């Protein structure tokens, strides 16, 4: 039996060749695959002398299909070019929290499912803070960190987020409350002497961790004292219940999850293994520019737990967001003096 294509194809080819002004021929001419499919599926032109502007249904469908396919290919080509364009580094405006000479980089190189309730998708994430942001004196960095967002990505790609609302500055060898007082440098506090943006994690009471970020100056750093939880609160609750006082069975309030240096480390699963990591490049912990808005009112008060540091114990090197319920310790006297 002769297949229909063996009959229809020569007839269609003869019609197409005549439209092009060529002599009738059964030899296939080079044209697109879709044209071949169309000529096989559509009936051949019945006219003996098919003019160039033939209105027969067969060639009419072919011309219409040609236009549609051409338009679709053009749209796909334009979409492909737009996706291939390189991302342009965003320069923050002076009103943004990470403004000034500091660098805001793009999102972290590693990607994964975003489970934070604070952001909708990876493209919605604010810019990641780069090395230049941390390269400033301790007091200035302690203030600049207020309002920025600390991000922790767990092994299952769950992301935990918290806005920094309280910090303490430690100014290096001359600071009697600093671990680097007198210029002492050991394997334990080496992170304080590394480049700005390096994490310094130390242990207190033999079981709790505290998270610091190195700043300009040898042995200078900023202690992160409290966060306002923004994303991954259920996971924070579980981690705090497993590692902290929440194990007693009482459900912790949101303001109790990260209102202390060791509490925030528990809530974000940060331990000694994070010591000496680089916040600007690490894939498991980093900082992002805080959400836009007016700058919060900041209170400067004495640091907590440094009563043996002599005159340095009373220096106003602790900074927190006035009125935030997530702060670990509120200094009413300092607030009244700075009202």
UniProtKB/TrEMBL annotation:
Residues 67-107 are annotated as: Disordered. Its EC number is 3.2.2.21. The keyword Hydrolase applies. SUPFAM superfamilies: FMT C-terminal domain-like (SSF50486). It holds the Pfam family Pur_DNA_glyco. Binds MBD1. Binds SSBP1. Hydrolysis of the deoxyribose N-glycosidic bond to excise 3-methyladenine, and 7-methylguanine from the damaged DNA polymer formed by alkylation lesions. This is DNA-3-methyladenine glycosylase.
């Amino acid at each position: 039996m002769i297949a229909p294509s063996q009959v229809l194809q020569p007839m269609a080819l003869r019609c197409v060749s005549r439209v092009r002004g060529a002599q009738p021929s059964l030899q296939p001419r080079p044209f697109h695959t879709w044209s071949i499919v169309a000529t096989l599926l559509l009936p051949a032109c019945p006219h003996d002398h098919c003019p160039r502007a033939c209105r027969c249904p067969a060639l009419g469908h072919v011309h219409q299909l040609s236009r549609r396919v051409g338009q679709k290919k053009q749209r796909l080509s334009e979409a492909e070019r737009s996706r291939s364009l390189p991302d342009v580094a965003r320069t923050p405006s002076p009103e943004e929290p990470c403004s000034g000479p500091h660098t805001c980089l793009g999102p972290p190189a590693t990607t994964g499912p975003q489970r934070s309730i604070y952001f909708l998708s990876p493209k919605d994430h604010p810019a990641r803070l780069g090395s230049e942001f941390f390269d400033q004196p301790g007091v200035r960095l302690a203030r600049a960190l207020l309002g920025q967002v600390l991000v922790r990505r767990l092994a299952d790609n769950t992301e935990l987020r918290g806005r920094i609302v309280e910090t303490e500055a430690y100014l290096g060898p001359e600071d009697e409350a600093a671990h680097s007082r007198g210029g002492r440098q050991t394997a334990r506090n080496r992170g304080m002497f590394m480049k700005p943006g390096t994490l310094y994690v130390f242990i207190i009471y033999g079981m709790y961790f505290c998270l610091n970020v190195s700043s300009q100056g040898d042995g200078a750093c900023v202690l992160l004292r409290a966060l306002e939880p923004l994303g991954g609160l259920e996971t924070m609750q579980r981690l705090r219940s497993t590692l902290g006082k929440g194990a007693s069975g009482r459900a912790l309030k949101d303001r109790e999850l990260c209102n202390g240096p060791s509490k925030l480390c528990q809530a974000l699963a940060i331990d000694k293994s994070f010591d000496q990591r680089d916040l600007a490049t690490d894939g498991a912990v980093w900082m992002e520019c805080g959400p836009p808005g007016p700058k919060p009112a900041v209170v400067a008060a004495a640091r907590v737990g440094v009563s043996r540091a002599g005159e340095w114990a009373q220096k106003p090197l602790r900074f927190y967001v006035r009125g935030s319920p997530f702060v670990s310790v509120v200094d009413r006297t300092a607030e009244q003096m700075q009202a």
